[in-house]
Write a structure and sequence with these properties.
This protein has 250 residues and is of the alpha/beta class. The chain is 50% helix and 11% strand. The protein is built from eight helices and five strands; from the N terminus they run αβααβαβααβαβα. β4 (153-158), α7 (172-194) and β5 (197-200) form a beta-alpha-beta unit. It is globular and about 75 Å long. The N and C termini lie far apart (84 Å).
Length: 250
C-alpha cells in the first residue's frame, strides 16, 4: 500500500513538474515572439548633420536599436541624438546581435571613419552562454577595429541583468543573473586593458533600477525596457560618457 501511494505521489509530482516546464516554455516563446514583433515596429535612430563636429558610430543589439521604445525619440540613440545635435550618428545596430556579429559588421565598415564608437553588447551572449574566452577575443578585435576606424573614444555599454527581466523566472533567472554578472565583469576587464569607457548596466536583482519608482519599467515583451526604462539606462550612460563626448558637440 505504501509503495503504491509513493508511486502515485511521484507520478503526480512528475506531471506537475512537466506541466510547469511546458507552461514556462510556452510563456517564453510568446514573450520572444512579442520581442520580435516589437523589433519590427522600430527604426534605429541615425542623424546626418551638415558640417557636423564629429562622427559617432553606434553598433549593437536591440538596446541600441530601440526595441521596446514607443518612438525613436524615446530610444537610447534618440535621446543621444537630441543631446548631441551637432554630431552625426550612424546607427548600425540590429536586433539580437551578438558580440561576434558586431565584430564582423565593424570589420566590414573599415572604410568609414568615426571619432567616437559606442558598442552595446552582451545580452545575447549571456542568453546563449557564449564561452568567455571567445567573448574576450572578439571584444579585443572590436576595440582594435574601433582604433583602426580612427576612434578617439570607444564606449562599451554592456549587458544588464538578464535574469532580472520579467520573462525569466526561477531557475532560469538565477542562471542568467550569474551569467550576466560574468559577462559584465569580463567586459570591465577588457575595457580596462584596452583603455575604453565601460558603462555596465548590470545590477543585482534587489538593486535593479528598472523596478524602481513604483513599478517594472519593461515593455510588453517582458524583456526590453519601456520608455521610462530606457531613460533610466540613458541617464546612467550619460553619467559616464558626457564629459568625453560633450566636447565634440561644441
Amino acid at each position: 500500500m505504501g509503495y503504491n501511494l509513493s508511486m502515485d505521489a511521484f507520478k503526480f509530482l512528475s506531471l506537475i513538474f512537466l506541466g510547469f516546464i511546458i507552461f514556462e516554455a510556452v510563456r517564453i516563446i510568446i514573450g520572444s515572439q512579442k520581442a520580435v514583433q516589437a523589433g519590427k515596429k522600430v527604426k534605429p535612430v541615425s542623424q546626418s548633420i551638415l558640417g557636423s563636429t564629429a562622427n559617432l558610430l553606434v553598433i549593437g543589439d536591440s538596446t541600441s536599436y530601440g526595441t521596446g521604445a514607443t518612438s525613436q525619440a524615446n530610444s537610447l540613440v534618440g535621446m543621444l541624438a537630441a543631446d548631441y545635435s551637432k554630431i552625426s550618428i550612424v546607427n548600425a545596430s540590429e536586433n539580437a546581435m551578438n558580440v561576434a556579429q558586431v565584430k564582423d559588421k565593424m570589420c566590414s565598415m573599415l572604410d568609414q571613419k568615426f571619432d567616437i564608437v559606442m558598442i552595446h553588447v552582451g545580452g545575447i551572449d549571456s542568453l546563449k552562454l557564449t564561452p568567455l574566452d571567445t567573448l574576450r577575443s572578439d571584444l579585443e578585435t572590436i576595440f582594435s577595429t574601433a582604433n583602426n576606424m580612427g576612434a578617439k573614444i570607444t564606449v562599451l555599454v554592456s549587458v544588464n541583468n538578464v535574469g532580472s527581466v520579467p520573462l525569466f523566472r526561477f531557475p532560469l533567472s538565477v542562471m542568467y543573473t550569474y551569467r550576466s554578472r560574468q559577462v559584465s565583469q569580463l567586459c570591465d576587464d577588457v575595457c580596462r586593458a584596452q583603455g575604453a569607457l565601460h558603462v555596465p548596466l548590470f545590477t543585482e536583482v534587489q538593486e535593479e533600477p528598472l523596478f524602481s519608482e513604483g513599478g517594472g519599467h519593461f515593455s510588453a515583451d517582458g524583456i526590453h525596457p519601456n520608455d521610462v526604462g530606457y531613460k533610466i539606462w540613458y541617464d546612467k550612460i550619460q553619467s559616464v560618457v558626457r564629459p568625453y563626448i560633450s566636447k565634440f558637440n561644441d
